[in-house]
C-alpha cells in the first residue's frame, strides 16, 4: 500500500491548559497521545509508512521526542487553523493519497485496520461516530447515495453524527482539495475545504462508521479522563 500519513500537531491546545503541545499529553498508560497514534499506525499499516507531523507551538519538544518523523512547520500556528496546517503538509507530500489525523485523537487501533480497506480502493473518506452529536464537534449529513454532504460545526438539523478527526483524501481528489484549502479563511478548519471540494468538484467522501470503537478528541480535561478509560 502506497500511503502517506500526516499528524496535525501545530496548535497551542490552550483549552486543555497544558504547557507542552497537546500531542505530548501523557495518558494513563504512560504514552503520550502522539505515541499512541504512532503505535496505532504501526499496528494498522506496519512499519515504514512515512509519517509527517505539522508542528508550530513549542515544536522543538515534539521534534526532540520523535526525531524519526518528517516535519512541516507552520510558523503561523497562532494565526491559522487546521486548514492551513494541512495545506502545508499536502504541498510537501508525494504523489498519492494522504491519511491525516488531528494530533489530539486517542483511538482504537482497529480504526486504522478498518480504514485500510477503504484506502486500498483509493476512496476519500471521513471517519465518523454516529452514537454522539455534540454542538461542539464537527457534524455531518449525507446525500441520498450515502456520501458526505455537509461537514461542519454549524449544522443545526439532520446531523447523523460527529466527524472523528481521522480522514483520507485520495490521489485523484487531492489537487482539488488543496485548491480549496488555499481559498478558505485562515481560521477555518480543514473540513471547510472538504465541503467546498464536495460542492464545486463533486468529490465523493465516504463516511466510515466507527461507533463500535473508541475515539476521543482531547480538547478538555474531561476528554482526557474519558480517553484514559480506554488506553
| Terminal residue distance | 28 Å
Task: Count all strands and give the number.
Answer: 11
What best-fitting shape do the alpha-carbon axes yield? globular
Strand content: 15-25%
Task: Determine the mean pLDDT.
Answer: 94
Give helix and strand order, one letter per element, not per position: EHEHEHEEHEEEEHHEEH
What structural category arises from helix and sheet content? alpha/beta
Discrete helix count: 7
Radius of gyration: 16 Å
Q: The biggest beta sheet, please?
A: 9 strands, mixed
Low-confidence runs (pLDDT<50, min 5 residues)?
A: none
Question: Could you walk me through the main structural features you see in this protein, from its secondary elements to its overall organization?
Answer:
The protein is α/β, with parallel strands linked by helices. Helices cover 30% and strands 23% of the residues. It contains seven helices and eleven strands. The strands form two sheets. Strands 1, 2, 3, 4, 6, 7, 8, 9 and 10 form a nine-stranded mixed β-sheet that branches. A two-stranded antiparallel sheet has the order 5-11. α3 packs across α5, α3 packs across α6 and α5 packs across α6. The longest helix is centred in the first third of the chain and has 13 residues.
Topology of this protein?
Elements: E1 4-9, H1 33-45, E2 51-55, H2 59-65, E3 70-73, H3 82-92, E4 98-102, E5 105-107, H4 110-119, E6 125-129, E7 139-142, E8 148-152, E9 161-169, H5 174-183, H6 190-201, E10 206-209, E11 215-217, H7 221-227
Parallel strand pairs: 1-2, 1-4, 2-3, 6-10
Antiparallel strand pairs: 4-9, 5-11, 6-9, 7-8, 7-9
Amino acid at each position: 500500500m502506497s500511503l502517506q500519513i500526516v499528524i496535525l500537531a501545530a496548535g497551542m491546545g490552550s483549552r486543555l491548559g497544558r504547557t507542552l503541545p497537546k500531542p505530548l499529553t501523557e495518558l494513563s498508560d504512560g504514552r503520550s497521545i502522539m505515541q499512541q497514534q504512532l503505535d496505532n499506525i504501526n499496528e494498522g499499516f506496519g512499519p515504514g509508512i512515512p509519517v509527517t507531523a505539522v508542528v508550530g507551538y513549542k515544536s522543538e519538544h515534539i521534534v526532540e521526542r520523535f526525531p524519526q518523523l518528517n516535519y512541516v512547520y507552520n510558523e503561523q500556528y497562532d494565526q491559522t487553523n487546521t486548514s492551513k496546517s494541512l495545506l502545508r503538509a499536502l504541498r510537501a507530500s508525494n504523489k498519492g493519497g494522504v491519511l491525516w489525523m488531528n494530533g489530539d485523537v486517542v483511538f482504537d487501533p482497529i480504526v486504522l485496520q478498518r480504514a485500510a480497506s477503504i484506502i486500498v480502493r483509493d476512496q476519500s473518506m471521513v471517519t465518523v461516530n454516529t452514537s454522539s452529536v455534540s454542538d461542539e464537534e464537527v457534524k455531518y449529513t449525507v446525500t441520498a447515495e450515502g456520501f458526505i454532504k455537509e461537514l461542519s460545526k454549524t449544522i443545526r438539523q439532520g446531523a447523523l453524527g460527529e466527524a472523528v478527526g481521522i480522514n483520507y483524501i485520495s490521489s485523484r481528489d487531492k489537487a482539488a482539495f488543496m485548491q480549496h484549502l488555499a481559498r478558505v479563511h485562515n481560521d477555518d478548519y480543514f473540513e471547510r475545504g472538504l465541503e467546498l471540494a464536495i460542492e464545486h468538484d463533486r468529490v465523493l467522501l465516504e463516511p466510515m462508521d466507527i461507533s463500535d470503537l473508541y475515539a476521543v478528541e482531547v480538547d478538555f480535561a474531561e476528554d482526557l479522563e474519558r480517553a484514559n478509560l480506554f488506553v
